[in-house]
Amino acid sequence: MSIQSRMYWPGFDPGFFVDGKILHDLWVALALMLVIEGVFPFLSPGAMKKMMKSIAEMDEKSLRISGLVSMVLGVVTLYLVN
Predict the structure, then answer these.
(1) H or E stretch covering 69
(2) With b meaning 16 or more CB within 10 Å and e meaning fewer, what string describes 32-43?
(3) I want to staple 41 with a disulfide (CB 3.0 to 4.6 A). Which of 15, 22, 48, 56 is the partner?
(4) How far apart are CA 68 and CA 19, in angstroms?
């Protein structure tokens, strides 16, 4: 069985993956993330340093919870936008 024939199976439409749309959207999302991540340190580097110090002093449970909250908010926002 060739590699090409293993990629597709009956009833599967590979068009979404083949036309490059998913890769384009992924690159756009990555670029926007980098822009948004860079705004705060650009506007206020001192506050960014202070925030990073306070994050470094947080316990792991608090970091995990804040990460979970951030992911859930991201998923909810994605759902509402789409």
Answers:
(1) helix 60-81
(2) eeeeeeeeeeee
(3) 48
(4) 33
Q: Which amino acid is at 28?
A: V
pLDDT tens-digit readout, 17-33: 666 777 788 889 999 99
Contact by Cβ (8 Å): 63, 55: yes
> Do the beta carbons of residue 41 and residue 48 sit within 8 Å?
yes
Return the amino acid letter for 81.
V
Question: Nearest-5° angle of CA 13, CA 10, CA 5?
Answer: 85
Predicted TM-score (pTM) above 0.85:
no
pLDDT digit string, tens, across residues 31-80: 999 999 999 999 999 999 999 999 999 999 999 999 999 999 999 998 99
Structure token digits, residue 31: 């670029």
